[in-house]
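Encode chain A's predicted structure.
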Amino acid sequence: MTAMAETPESNAPDPAGSMPSLQDMQYWTGILGSAQQMMMEHLSTVAATPGAKPVPSFAMPDPAVFLKAQADFWSDSMALWQRFLTPAADAAPPPPHPSDRDRRFAAPQWRDNPVFDLIRQSYLMATDHLLKGVDQMSGIDDRQREKLRFATAAFADAMSPTNFPLTNPLVLEKTIETKGQNLLKGLEHMLADLSRGQLTHTDPTAFEIGRNIATTPGKVVKETPLYQLIQYTPTTRKVLAKPLLIFPPWINRFYILDLNPEKSFIRWAVEQGLTVFVVSWKSADATMVDISMDDYVLRGQIDAIDTVRDLLGQPSVHVIGYCVAGTALACTLALLAERGQADRVASATFFTAQVDFEQAGDLKMFIDDEQLKMLEQLSAETGYLDGRYMALTFNLLRGRDLIWNYVVNNYLLGQDYPPFDLLHWNGDTTNLPGKWHQAYLTDLYRDNKLATGTYRIDGTPIDLSVVRTPAYIQAGKDDHIAPVASVYKLTRHFSGPVRFVLAGSGHIAGVVNPPAAQKYQYWVNEAGADTLEAFVADAIETKGSWWPDWFAWILTHGSETVSATRARIPGKGSLPALEDAPGRYVRMR
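Encoded structure for chain A:
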């Protein structure tokens, strides 16, 4: 085993700044070099151990490649030392590097202080070489390489000098300034998070459902053991005859589409003259142990579609499926088509939804036999998966932003939590039926049955090619949960007219982008394209929100209007109002 670098006798780096000694530079660069060597030796040992677990199973790189990688690392290390030992007054600045935009090191102290500048550059150099080492490994397939790269990047993020008090100049300054009170306050934050079993991202007292989030006026007009149906109060004298029914994901709370009046897609849709209904799913409890995808399709989506049709006396409805609810909606449309009932849906909109999981992104890093067995055990006693596990999974996908950023700001710096409605929603977890969750990961993420035509709902094979319902498919350019390459595949499975829109930003901000904010952009390709690459090549960019584009598309599938009276008013039709929106299901934990 490689010897660890000897700890220098000097104290922690002085945040005020002084030229580092050769001993300091040798120590900090040696630490990071040792980390790389330890990783490589560990991987070599695993590969060479007889009877070792064959996951991942790989061979080490060609010796020449391995030696070159080591030589490159030490060459870069020596070049870095040389720059600090003998800085030339007229030396050209180093070439631009992607790390220059790394927000972790945005504070000037990371560059103005030579010790911390050395720590920063040593860490970034070692991280680059660790990831290059993964890329150069031979004898592993693409999936194994992706998993190893994900784990290596997560390790590197965790080992960032920003995450440790003695190697973060901002923490040292704050500790001196507050005489250590920041660390005590941070400890209080950490102990509170440990008690609740979840990392806090925002002030937990800043928001209350129905008071300053999820406030669009409406009534709950139906309740089942699986969902509540909310009908929203019209704000226009006339409304479109065809109503809109929104299926949010049951992995999260529905009010991501109703955060506040300025960001609310629900409120905006009502203001356009749509009669809007939203399904608020029940967070799973012990009564939902046997819930499966069949239930979400049959007793969820199809039941809600028929309820809205009957209530308003309309033959068809517009529907929206967000994320996993979009996956279920694709199944619903195929099942209705097989039953000769496709005309019950006038149009279908998909927000960041996948049906082909071959390129489903980093979430697939968590899908293997070991992980599936662990998840099964987690839900074995209660029949449902605690939502905090899903929250942790999503946080791990963006650990740098959603974990370590808060470790630094709230644990080490002791800062107060800012009020942020989106992060409040992000931490408002929902439990998932264990049986459904296990089957979802196994059948769709692992086995990709929906894309291959071997998935069944209510005993019926789901063939997406029979879907001819007009579809509007939205994807987020920077989506890390439903990558655009995966979402685009949906356009190739349906047989009806499809409009694909690529929105700026990601899984949430790419959807929740009201026109008044004048943020981001979206791309369309009116000619259509067989591949994502072809779509992007000829796509036209439009600044701002894609919501108006979507509404213009909705009008092409029914522009007739009716008076906003009688059943168009929540509780004034055949379904009485049970309670005010947003209802009780969204408050259940």
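Confidence is low (pLDDT under 50) at residues 1-11, 51-61.
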